[in-house]
Design goal:
Blueprint: E1 8-11, E2 14-23, E3 35-39, E4 46-50, E5 62-66, E6 72-77, E7 83-88, E8 94-98, E9 102-106, E10 112-117, H1 120-125, E11 127-135, E12 138-145, E13 150-153, E14 162-163, E15 176-182, E16 185-192, E17 195-199, E18 204-207, E19 219-224, E20 230-235, E21 239-244, E22 250-255, E23 264-267, E24 278-282, E25 285-289, E26 295-299, E27 304-309, E28 312-317, E29 320-326, H2 329-335, H3 342-354, H4 359-369, H5 373-386, H6 390-404, H7 413-429, H8 439-445, H9 447-456, H10 460-469, H11 478-489, H12 497-508, H13 516-525, H14 529-536, H15 542-551, H16 555-565, H17 568-581, H18 584-592, H19 595-608, H20 610-619, H21 623-636, H22 640-656, H23 660-683, H24 692-701, H25 705-714, H26 719-733, H27 736-745, H28 753-761, H29 765-772, H30 777-787, H31 790-800, H32 803-812, H33 819-834
Antiparallel strand pairs: 1-2, 2-29, 3-4, 4-5, 5-6, 7-8, 8-9, 9-10, 11-12, 12-13, 13-14, 15-16, 16-17, 17-18, 19-20, 20-21, 21-22, 23-24, 24-25, 25-26, 27-28, 28-29
Helix pairs in contact: 2-3, 2-5, 3-4, 3-5, 3-6, 5-6, 5-7, 6-7, 9-10, 10-11, 11-12, 11-13, 12-14, 13-14, 15-16, 16-17, 19-20, 20-21, 21-22, 22-23, 24-25, 24-26, 26-27, 26-28, 28-29, 28-30, 29-30, 30-31, 31-32, 32-33
Amino acid sequence: MAFVTANWNPLGESFYRKIELYEMGWNLKDGLRECLVAAAPYGGPIALLKGHYRRSPSARPQLEIYSSSGLPLASFPWKSGVVKQLGWTVSDDLLCVQEDGTVLVYDLWGGFKRHFSMGNEVSQSQVLETKIFHSPYGTGVAILTGALRFTLATNIDDIKLRRLPEVPGLQEAPSCWAVLTQDRQSKVLVANGSQLFILDNTACTPVTPPGLSPQASSIVHMCVSFSYKYLALLTDSGHVWMGTSNLKEKLSEVDTKIKTPPKQMAWCRRPKSQQPSAVVMWDGLLIVVGECKETIQYHLDDDSVLVPELDGVRIISGTHHELLQEVPGACEEIFKIASMAPGALLLEAHKEYEKESQKADEYLREIKEQSLLSEAVRQCVEAAGHEHEPETQKTLLRAASFGKCFLSNFPPEQFVSMCRDLRVLNAVRDYTVGIPLTHTQFKQMTVQVLIDRLVYRKLYPLAIEVCRYLKTPEYQGVSRVLKHWACYKVQQKEESDEVIAKAVSVKLADAAGISYSEIATKAYESGRTELAIKLLEFEPRSGEQVPLLLKMKKSPLALSKAIESGDTDLVYTVVMYLKNELNRGDFFMMLRNQPVALSLYKQFCKHQEQDTLKDLFNQDDDHEELGNFYVKASYKDQRLEARVALLQSAVDEYYKAKNDFSAKTTEDEMRLLRFQRKLEEEKGEQLVGFSLHDTMTTLLSVGLHKHAEQLYKDFRVPDKRFWWLKLKALAEKEDWEELEKFGKTKKSPVGYLPFVEVCIKHHNKYEAKKYVSKVTPEQKVKAHLAVGDMEGAAEAAIERRNESEISTVLSRCSATTDHLLMERLNRAKATAVKK
């Protein structure tokens, strides 16, 4: 604790510190000399391409990937083209940009993933310089070609190449350039001597930095802040200009007094800091510049690389990995010499308390008198988050905890959250893990991304512990990690299918929301089909099992699983797949072994493939269904001969099926069709295709009574049905004379009330009255009421002494015109009730 400020250096009103993160675990004989180096932000991995200038097959460059602590992750000889630049994507994939414009993508472990080209123009004119940048859309690549033109891709996962406008007067490679991201658009800032240009999709716009030193004749280096909000320019006169990236506001300008071009420059502004600052590196020297004229100088023993971060700059050399940053405000307030800030007093109070000194009370009283105890606790908690040494963290948190004891309503969330965060950060900063995140970076990155990074590094136990400790929802945390572990496990060739399947099922038994089909897919892609089938047995959702089984050519099993699920859509999916994949005979044989699938396929064929349905019935010797098929087919054919032929086929099938009723009925249909055709030819009436009922109705309506009666006899139509048909047909024709004759031919099997009703329906009360007398006594009241004969209805009702009929007649009587009749009916009703 006594040496917390030992590595602090003042610059203006702020302090800067250089913290050692790791002593590197790699063993580089020549350090980083003659290496292409790329380090991912947020404490990501480091890629080295040794001897990248070599072009001889006997001495190939070596590509090596390390963790931030220098532990090896991958190493392999580079056998492709000349590499101009290395860089990392937002998801920790390595990009290798070649001289011909081809970009190769590798994973963290050196596994090749894919490649893409930056276009024909780049390929033809070669890559001069390239920059890999991160935009709101993802990871982008910007290339300066040998033709001095810029080509840009803002998202390598969705390649859309943009060729930017030409820079006027550019005869050779620009002295420096950088990619800016403004208003969700990526632009290129180019320096050509002392001139600056911004290139966007449509135009090349000259710009002038406000207040740039007049001594400058050329801009030799530039860098953009991590957030793309700020820009630093270094001129040939040794001046560093700092301002906003839109070049509208100058923040400061500092003379470094060094006029040689630097190796690298990086922005070093902490979020919410009031002071702009940049780091400039030459061979053996590092300078920090800010608002004031003074600078901070650090001497470097080895070749080093600067890695810009959200809240500082990481410095990687052949032996060490360090973090240079502005000292956070809370740390400065507490640890600054002679500080009287509330946090500093609380820390002193706690130290004295541990010594059992009464001075602790004096310090506490001083804080309380100013009502700043809550602020003191907050400062200690915040400062603990910015410290890398666990002992310093503990000291600050103990002081905060001590101060909380004297506060009655201090919310505990900030303290608890910081303790959790620091425990996680200390775990991932460990040398064996090698992710040196600061608390600011951790909050920006989010827990989910950190878990993804741990999973990507195959640190599954640590990822699970972090999920459990931070109480991450299971489907986002433990279950997701276990799924990735299982996908990795099934690719291991050393163990047998049974051992791996058992291990996966045991580990994932209690995990919620895990799809075994995804794990099985990974096993299948790794060439382990039997393991994939075993894993699918654990998948409870058939909808997830079936597609993979089909992909693996396990059609019978897929069909069985689909049927077990009870999901008809899923069964149809499998059946249609099999129909396209298998020959017709094998397809039908497979369906015969699965009655449910066969039944569903028949339903499909009824609507879509009639000929296939016929083949199925033939194969199964299903004569009954074949007969039905021919009958339905006959209705679709307009030609009579074809219809009759199809019906004859149906008759033959019905007899084979020993269904005499259907056979006889079909024969009757054939006779009816022939009769209809004959009548059509003789009388010119359109009859073919009509039913027996409609045929007789049509014949009666056109006066062909004899032909109708012939059908009545030939087809043994019931008497009642024929009488109803003829009765309605004659009434519709208003052939009352024929109707009267028809009524006298013999006793009506339907009675005579229908005669009355059809006459009334066609508004002929006169004809209706002719039949009232023939109506049976039970229907007399209805008949009289139908023709409007109230007296007759009353007589019939009284004669039958039926209370219900009397009430019916009464309800139809009018109180003004039928007064006497109503009295008579009421007396009759009273008599009927007494009896």
